[in-house]
Amino acid sequence: MKRNFLILLLLVGGFTLTVAQQKAEIVINTDKGEYQISKHVYGHFSEHLGRCIYGGLWVGEDSHIPNINGVRKDIIDALKHIKIPNLRWPGGCFADEYHWMDGIGPRDQRAKMVNTHWGGVVEDNSFGTHEFLDLCEVLETEPYICGNMGSGSVEEMSKWVEYITSDNESPMTNLRKENGREKPWKVRFWGVGNENWGCGGNMTAEGYAENYRRYATYCRNYGDNRLYKIAGGPNSGDTHWMTVMMKNIPHGLMRGVSVHNYTVTNHWGDKGNATGFTEDDYFSLLYNGFNMDSLITRHSKIMDTYDPRKRIAMVFDEWGAWYNVEPGTNPGFLYQQNSLRDAILAGTILNIFHKHADRVKIANIAQLVNVLQALILTEGDKMLLTPTYHIFDMYKVHHDATMLPIELNTPLYSNKGRSMDAISASASRDKDGKIHVSLVNLDPNNSIEVNCDLKGLDSKAKFVSANIVTADKIDSHNTFDNPNTVELKEFKDASLKNQKLQVKMPAKSVVTVEIL
Ligand code: AHR
Description:
Blueprint: H1 2-19, E1 22-29, E2 43-45, E3 67-68, E4 71-72, H2 73-81, E5 86-89, E6 113-115, E7 121-123, H3 129-139, E8 142-147, H4 154-165, H5 171-178, E9 189-192, H6 205-217, E10 228-231, H7 239-248, E11 256-263, H8 279-306, E12 313-321, H9 340-355, E13 360-366, E14 376-379, E15 382-385, H10 387-394, E16 402-403, E17 406-409, E18 412-415, E19 418-421, E20 423-429, E21 435-441, E22 448-455, E23 463-469, E24 489-490, E25 494-497, E26 500-505, E27 509-515
Parallel strand pairs: 1-22, 2-5, 2-13, 5-8, 8-9, 9-10, 10-11, 11-12, 12-13
Antiparallel strand pairs: 1-17, 3-4, 6-7, 14-15, 16-20, 18-19, 20-21, 21-27, 22-26, 23-24, 23-27, 25-26
Helix pairs in contact: 4-5, 6-7, 7-8, 8-9, 9-10
Bound molecules: alpha-L-arabinofuranose (AHR).
């Protein structure tokens, strides 16, 4: 009898414990803030890989799919809506095998080649320099070109810069004019090679730095076009590579060092699936995603040693989730679905970029369409926006806003002996004085009440609006038959009283609140 009573007590006690409202406390210093969240951390990446360009962005001018100069109009509209600030092209590993002269001139006369790196398919070069730069103009986005150092010459890279940006009289500018473009384009962001520790030539850090100095020297500034040259940086946590870049390359020759870091479910041998995963997989992926914070801290420390004035940017020009490809698709095409978990990962990593606004100035999620953590998927003339797209839509309010320092006290989300913060947060103040607070509840089982003390807030400030991305299941996703399962919705459970913001975050959700 006594034993049964004890069991009952434990059960009731346990039940009370699980349903108790979890709380997080945040202090946001609304009148402080030193660094701007560069809008360029919201950049994108389009490689000649799988169906990113061909069968994704590019359908050609004669397609029955509505297009502007050969690029799908539905995609252009979607990208304009989220105000994409820059677009990286043509790779990736493809960049170090790309010879730009193959992709200019009349399309039917362009060289055909095999894309040896990605899927062994024929690349007919119908999308080249003109098509890319014209697209950037339509999108009102800044091009970020990655030049070929791995298999290209100094001369080839130097001439590409000249062809695009020079207004002088020269064989290159005459060629551009013959190909229909009178005025030069403006291109600022210029990558000198990609992953040169691997697919971009298997170089040593020292060897790459030496080569960089030569290549970068001949990438000239023409007229008022000022190149922002970016060195190919380390693979994830390779601090030796970062040290050599900062030490061996004269700082006058570079404005940024790139870093690549992908998030996998367990490890590279067990990347996991994009949908149909367990809660353990959900936890592992997000836990690995949090590594981005310590990774940036480690690289920042090195950069601070050699560049205390923070002139050189950390450029995260490839990041995102990388899973097994969808069954039945070409393994070289890296096509994967995109679920609510990816939205949660994106919100968390963007909050981490905000936190490191002093150093991380450019970032490019991989990739834009139909590849890895894509914002957009297409199938024939159908197109859908993924949960990750909706986070980029929600977070666009942070573009170029001042990052507000925060102190966060959050419950933990634990799984099988490992724990991580259940809440991720960031805040900013834009040029009109609007404050935006972005919160992620990573816990898939518990709602969390988040109480924010908005220090220094004008007493007349009001809650304006809030929006949310959430769904029923951790792997809820959009399909061509049901494209709106996960989308951006208005959120009502947020209120502001006496400079205190309260947000009741549902389990597994991302919310952004606007205050003015
Ligand atoms: O984004 C896919 C590939 O990942 C890129 O081509 C390469 O740079 C990286 O290894």
